[in-house]
Structures are given as C-alpha cells and as structure tokens.
Design goal:
The chain is of the alpha+beta class. The protein has two domains: 8-38 and 76-212, Cupredoxins -  blue copper proteins (Immunoglobulin-like, Sandwich); 215-309, Cytochrome Bc1 Complex, Chain D, domain 2. The chain contains seven helices and twelve strands. It has helices at 16-47, 64-93, 199-207, 215-225, 228-231, 263-271, 294-306; strands at residues 100-107, 110-114, 120-122, 124-128, 132-139, 144-148, 153-157, 163-168, 173-179, 192-197, 250-252, 258-260. Strands 3-2-1-5-8 form a five-stranded mixed β-sheet, covered by helices on one side. The protein is elongated. Bound molecules: dinuclear copper ion (CUA).
Amino acid sequence: MDKDFHIFPEQASTLAGQVDMLYYVLTGLCIFFGMLIFFLIYVFAVRYRRRSEDDVPRQIPGLLKLEIAWSIIPLGMSMVVFFWGAKLYFEMYTPPDDALEIYVVGKQWMWHIQQPSGRREINELHVPTGRPVKLLMATEDVIHSFYVPAFRVKKDVVPGRYSTMWFEATKPGTYHLFCAEYCGTKHSQMIGSVVVMEPVQYQRWLSGNTGDETPVAAGEKKFQQLGCITCHGDKPGSRGPTLKGLFGAPVQLQNGDIVNVNEDYIRESILNPGRKVTAGYSPIMPTYQGQVNEATLLQITAYIKSIGTTQK
Ligand code: CUA
C-alpha cells in the first residue's frame, strides 16, 4: 500500500474507470450548479436590492426564450447522465458468455467460495486478470452483500434465489472484500480479500488443489444419491423430463407458458417442483426443501448445466 492520499479505492477492474468517470461528471455538475446558484444569489441580492423607501420594482412579464433555455439545457444534461448510467448498468448486470464461473455461498458470517476446478476457499477469492469472472451467489441464511470496492461492484445475496455478479480484474494485487449488508452480530467481521493473479500464477494456484471434487462431479454424485436419476434418467417413458440439453433452452409448461431454463429455474424446480411443471408430465415430484443446502444446490445446478448447455 502506498501512503498517498486516496479519495477513491484503487481501480482494479475494467468497470472501475467507467464508474468513476460517471461519478466525477455527476459530482462536477453538482459543484458547478451549486456554485453558480450561490454566486447568483449574492449577485442578485446586491444588484437588485431596495435602494430607497419608495423604490418600486419594474414589472417584468417573463422571457419565453430564457425559460425554454433553462428547461431544455438541464433536460439534455440529465438525459445524457441517464443514458450513460443506464448503459453502464446493463453492462454491469450482463455477464459475458465466456465468463469463468465461481460459486459463492454467504453464511453468517463468512463467504464460502468454490472454484470451477473444485478448490474451495473461505473469505478469499482468487481470480485471474484479463478474464471475465461471473459469481453465482446464494445465501444459507439472511441477506448478505458481496462488495469489492476496487472493482466497483456490489450485489445483495438474497435468500431463496441466486444472485449473479461479474467483473474483469485488470491489476494483480490483494483487494478488500466486504459484506455490505448488516447481517447480525459479526457482520463487521464478514470480510476477506480478493486476490488477483496473472493467469499463469492463477493456474498454478489452482493446481495446488487440495483434492476437492469439481462442483460438476459433486453435483453428479448428489444427483444419483438423491435419486434424481430415477425419474430424470434420460430413458424413454421416464416419469420426469430428461435434463440433457436443457440448460439455456426454452421449455413449455403445463399452463402454456414458456420459460427459459436458467439457474433460478433449476433451483425452483428442485425446491418447489409443483410450481412450473413441464408440459406433458404430472406434478408428482416431491420437494427437496430442507434436504439440500445451498452448496449442494449449486453443485446440482452445475451438473445440470454441464449436461445441458446446448447453444453457444
Ligand atoms: Cu453478511 Cu453482513
């Protein structure tokens, strides 16, 4: 760490510079107009002050051109800020297709993280530079919020659904990781670090694996242990639809709706199978609520994705 004074944290992701630029422009606009208004208040107060007891001001009917100008110019400026912000927002919330996927489970009061290779970490996240990274996040208990100031990203992790977030790190180093949502007594201790490494170093770090199974392999095992395979076994006449080639594909439901199969749909179908039943099948699947935790759900999801990615 250098001893220079910083107002902002370091910029360590592809988005950081863009977020800061927008923020600088917004701050600049506020300062400019704030100063302009204060300046004019004083100028007008002095210039148009009442000079004598019988001073009667001249009546001014209004100046249409001026009124249009001070409506149109701020409108234009706020629209520029709006579209700029919206563009950045969509960019931040749409992970690239080729992103490296890492699983995150928040739990009072720590972050459990699993790399695609299977390597697990607690309160530490290792990522390579120059590669988009997508975090698929869930929580075992209350709302937590995954926050990496140096990347300018923050996302709430809400019970009952998956949250995703993505970034591309640009600079090797170690950066703060915070939980940014008050989640109980030790919320302030739910902190850690993100370690950004050159791709070669990252590969080396990954290969120092402690023998953990990959999420896909673990998910496949669970898929068999929990008996999912009995009904979703990809045989003709099975009681449940096959899951091969399912991920990312549209599925027709009993009520005629079409859903796109994503992580949240898989999760919902495991915990609440009667909700969105595939057309042509009966709602006979029991719920797995209480039998699988978030980590297991993520593994099963990883497995279903691995046998299911059709397009791309
Ligand atoms: Cu988790 Cu605050």
